[in-house]
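Final report, Chapter 2: Outcomes

The project's central promise was a pipeline that accepts a single protein chain and returns its three-dimensional structure in a standardized token representation, suitable for archiving and comparison. That pipeline is now operational. To close this chapter, we reproduce one record exactly as it appears in the project archive, with the input sequence first and the structure output second.
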Amino acid sequence: MKLYLLLAVLVLLAMGSGYWYFQVYTKTPDYALQKIERALEEHDQKTFERYVDMDALLDKSYDDLMEGLMDAEQPLSTEAKFTVGNFTQMLKAPLITSFKQAVEQYVNTGSWTQESEESSQGFEAAQVLEKSGICESSFRKVDSMAKDKEAGTAIAKVRIFQQEANEEFVLDVQFTEQPDGTWRVTEINNFHEFVLFLTKARRAQLIQYADTTAEIISRHDAAMMQAQEQFNNLLSRGTLGSDETRKALKNFMEGTIKADWQQRKTELEAVTVPAAAQTLHHLRLRICDLHIAYAAGYAAWMTDKKATTIREADRQLKQAKTLEQEEKFLARRVGAPAEGE
């Protein structure tokens, strides 16, 4: 009898546990969060979409993103903000469609990168997606889950690490109870604040880049001004027809001009470059390469005396001067110092 009673108790406990699990726990936001995490791990898009209302989430997130980007820039007048807002609303539908494809790509593969051109989100969508900072964010943990029974909502404090900012941020992920009792993610309540947080971090990195490169550029520009005077002195004390003068000029171009531009490039390559300054930085390195090539070509001309050698060297210098004008334009756009300024 004791054994029968024990078995009966165990059966009742199992039935109670099963009832609690299927009728209670599966209809909680905690369970929904667990299913979302597992769906991402197993690349299960069907389960992910069951517990994430993609349409509602992307609709609100798009508005928060655009508003955050506008607020992060120079303060706009009410009229200007209204005009920009109307323009962003015109792009909303196609961009949200592209964002949805990007999320599906991430759920299915674990990567935001589109490997085929046919599934590409498009240039505008890729740019906006990059500005959102989501692609460079990774999940850390869930700090807490607070449920509001009357409102039928719950807020999960989801801690993420944002790589660009090199800092953690806690997202307020809202779950909403559905008519069938399940819970779905419908909104990120503080996504606007996340955009401002990321923009502030990016601006700080850009200022750091500007300050660091300003010191490098200023120091090497001063060295080049002195080098130009030395170059003129060498020419004034002799003639290009003199072997002694040509040897002195060759040594000067290789040991001073070329070496200084190589050192400038090395120092620039060691600088941490924010995303907004990548194009500018690559242009600066290209300018260094052209000046190095010019110095090497001029030095070679001092030995071979060929017209083709000096013409090629002059071509490199002319291209460098042309790119320096473009570099000044880009530097003003990102707020960094330009070559020669």
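Archive annotation: The beta strands are 137-148, 153-162, 167-177, 183-188.
This record, like all others produced under the grant, will remain available to the consortium after the project formally closes.
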